[in-house]
Write a structure and sequence with these properties.
The chain has 19 helices and 20 strands. The chain has 563 residues and is α+β, with helices and mostly antiparallel strands. The strands form four sheets. Strands 1-2-19-18-14-13-10-9 form an eight-stranded antiparallel β-sheet. The longest helix is centred in the middle third of the chain and has 21 residues. The termini are close together. The N terminus is likely disordered.
Length: 563
């Protein structure tokens, strides 16, 4: 077994039970990658990865570990880990079954198409992005219980690590300290009562974060199941919070929420079966479109991050995101021509105006002709039986609406901004939409989350996903291409600099360590290139024979554990 360590932090080692955490305060390092043989967990925080690994070692399967990891992330990674948001799960089970579970948030019953427009018809994006009115009905807890039927261990065992971490506390990392400090203003604006994430002095690495209210909420879920969140005391606290801030989530909205098991999106790519999330995730469709548009163009011969390969990938990204804006929405509410969008004939037509060496133009290349979300978190898990799970969850923006439910201790999402508030008006990630993604009561907002599993010979070879709003599908796409086409190692596939194009705005966003000479070549073709901060935080598991390689992204406190 090989491990690669990075960034010494002060955290709790948990040798047996998370209840012992306070008594075992010591040093250990964030573990970026591990090579092992039985099972692995990769997530955005070491304590969450450790919680998932502990469950695997105690006889749980990959679904058990995924549930425990999600719950731990709700405690140790409050920027995106959550019980007040939603997400998607994609899984391949050892019996050959592929499943996907949709627990995306829903618009409340009192939501309406023009609820964020002023009397003159102007979009009021502050209302869709901050505060109580920005929150959709949370789906995460329902999703955990919907996935429980594929688990082995009792739920009380899976939730206990999260309860222990919330009740006894854990020392935060330097990155988390900086994040709490930079969000203090927004937290104070949206919360009148004292909350765990705000204190008089500045947070620093090693400070203890204790979340008593959250621990009590988790105990109600442990004792009462799904009803412990959507009914009773917790539901009462959510509704009271809504009333304090003119929010519109009602008791009936909570009680009636259901996660939905859907047929996973599945397609073949050069001897691999790619399994991803269907609508209301746009990610699976975008991934299928992009891979099929490059499939016959021998991108491998172009080599990794040559001007030719980056240009080709940019142009397929442009076309996929133009289609996203025009055609995609919640398929329970609108007709989406999915079969046409991913058909070879249609995609060949979409690439007819592609010119190697010349920049495309989004004003000319729009959506095809058919007749008929940045703070998120991802986890990847695989177990010794061959079960693989990819889960992406979100509050939408970092810390969601910044609204903490008084007395319950968790942050509510601001997912309503993922609807098309007004046709032609971009959301916080610059994504455009139309009536397909308009607000309607009970409707799920379009998402970019792309949890993905790749099979070879009917066995998992890749488990992957990332946060990053609209950059999620392009990050997953590039990771898959890096491995399948460019034959890169898992570590390089995750950590090499990424780029992104989403049709509008018409530019290529690149990470700051993107090669300068490559930027010059792209600009010479006619592209606008804009350096930016990190794109995504990919969590990858690769299976090579009997060897499992798990990699946590270098861009955060992401951590890989295995045995």
């Amino acid at each position: 077994m090989r491990t690669y360590l990075a960034g010494l932090v002060f955290l709790f080692i948990i040798p047996g039970s998370f209840a012992q955490s306070v008594k075992n305060n010591t040093h250990y390092s964030v573990q970026k990658t591990i090579t092992c043989g039985k099972g692995a967990v990769v997530s955005a925080h070491p304590l969450a990865s450790m919680a998932g690994l502990q469950i695997l070692k105690q006889g749980g399967n990959a679904v058990d570990a995924a549930i425990a990891t999600q719950l731990a992330l709700a405690v140790v990674y409050p920027a995106a880990g959550n019980i007040g948001g939603g997400g998607f799960m994609v899984a391949h089970l050892s019996n050959g079954q592929n499943i996907s579970i949709d627990y995306r948030e829903k618009a409340p019953a009192k939501a309406s198409r023009d609820m964020y427009l002023d009397k003159d018809g102007n979009a009021q994006l502050d209302l869709s992005q901050y505060g109580h009115l920005a929150s959709g009905v949370p789906g995460t807890v329902a999703g955990l219980f919907a996935s429980l039927k594929y688990a082995k261990l009792p739920f009380v065992k899976l939730i206990q690590p999260a309860i222990d971490l919330a009740e006894h506390g854990f020392p935060i990392t330097a990155g988390q300290a900086a994040s709490f400090n930079s969000n203090k203003k927004e937290f104070l604006e949206q919360n009148k009562a004292a909350i765990a994430f705000v204190k008089a002095e500045k947070w620093k690495a090693g400070d203890l974060l204790i979340q008593t209210d959250l621990a009590n909420t988790l105990k109600r879920i442990r004792d009462l199941g799904q009803k412990g969140f959507y009914e009773g005391e917790t539901a009462r606290l959510i509704v009271e919070e809504m009333q304090r801030g003119n929010g519109i989530i009602s008791p009936d909205d909570l009680k009636s929420y259901e996660a939905k098991e859907r047929t996973p999106l599945s397609f073949d790519y050069k001897g691999h079966q790619v399994i991803s999330m269907p609508l209301p995730s746009s990610g699976g469709i975008i991934i299928e479109q992009m891979l099929k548009m490059i499939e016959q163009r021998n991108i491998a011969a172009m080599k990794f991050q040559s001007a030719g390969s980056v240009q080709l990938m940019t142009e397929v990204e442009r076309r996929a995101y133009a289609d996203r804006a025009e055609f995609l929405g919640d398929a329970d509410f609108v007709n989406v021509p999915v079969k046409t969008l991913v058909s070879r004939e249609y995609l060949e037509q979409r690439m007819k105006d592609y010119e190697p060496g010349k920049a495309g133009n989004s004003k000319i290349t729009g959506a095809g002709m058919i007749r008929e979300s940045e703070e998120t978190t991802h986890l990847s898990v695989i177990d010794a039986e061959g079960n693989a799970v990819a889960v992406t969850t979100t509050l939408n923006d970092s810390y969601g609406s910044h609204t903490v439910v008084t007395g319950a201790g968790f942050i509510l999402n601001n997912e309503m901004d993922d609807f098309s508030v007004k046709p032609g008006v971009p959301n916080m990630y610059g994504a455009l939409g139309n009536d397909k993604n308009a607000i309607a009561p009970g409707k799920r907002m379009l998402s970019s989350m792309t949890p993905t599993i790749v099979l070879k010979n009917n066995k998992p070879c890749l488990v992957v996903g990332t946060p990053g709003g609209t950059t999620i599908p392009t990050s997953v796409f590039q990771t898959l291409v890096n491995i399948i086409e460019f034959n890169m190692t898992a570590i390089d596939a995750v950590n090499k600099p990424k780029f992104h194009h989403q049709w509008s705005p018409d530019r290529i966003d690149v990470e700051k360590d993107f090669p300068a000479d490559l930027i010059q070549q792209l600009e010479a073709m006619g592209y606008t290139v804009k350096p930016r901060e990190s794109i995504g935080r990919t969590e990858l598991i690769q299976v090579l024979g009997k060897k499992i390689i798990a990699v946590g992204d270098k861009r955060g406190d992401d951590d890989a554990r295995g045995y």
